[in-house]
Design a protein that fits this description.
alpha+beta; Nuclear Transport Factor 2, Chain: A; about 20% helix
Length: about 140
């Protein structure tokens, strides 16, 4: 079974290699994929793959994913993404995997940082973490 850390590592490699079709293999049968915290979840595999097609156009300088929490099939991470000559994106991921290491739930939050913003590149951890209810794991 794939751990959340391994899942994030594979996702990062897909992003860096700019091969969005490979994300399909990381998705579970009953996926709820939140591309944006304010949109309805994407629940079809082909729609998640379609959303990932934008990585083909990215002029990637770096992508980092650092684990904040990992417990059984749940993981949380802080990610950073930057294209050359563009502002940095900083955000967090919440991930829940099925018993086979495939994604059941994926949520992301992000903010774009550049030097022209009033607060500069300061990131508050509170802004990156999901609401506390996301930490509650239901026992079977």
């Amino acid at each position: 079974m794939r751990t959340p850390r391994e899942w994030f590592d594979e996702m990062r490699q897909i992003w860096l290699s700019q091969k969005p079709d490979l994300i399909f293999d990381l998705l579970g049968d009953n996926i709820q994929y939140f591309e944006s915290p304010y949109d309805s979840p994407i629940i079809k595999h082909d729609e998640v793959v379609s959303a990932w097609q934008e990585i083909k156009k990215q002029n990637i300088e770096y992508v980092t994913i650092d684990m904040l929490h990992e417990c059984k099939n749940v993981g949380m991470a802080v990610w950073r993404f930057k294209e050359y000559n563009r502002p940095e994106h900083v955000g967090s991921y919440f991930l829940k995997l099925d018993d086979h290491g495939k994604c059941l739930e994926f949520r992301q939050w992000w903010q774009i940082f550049d030097e022209d913003m009033p607060h500069g590149n300061v990131v508050r951890v509170d802004d990156l973490l999901p609401p506390p209810s996301c930490f509650v794991l239901k026992e079977k």
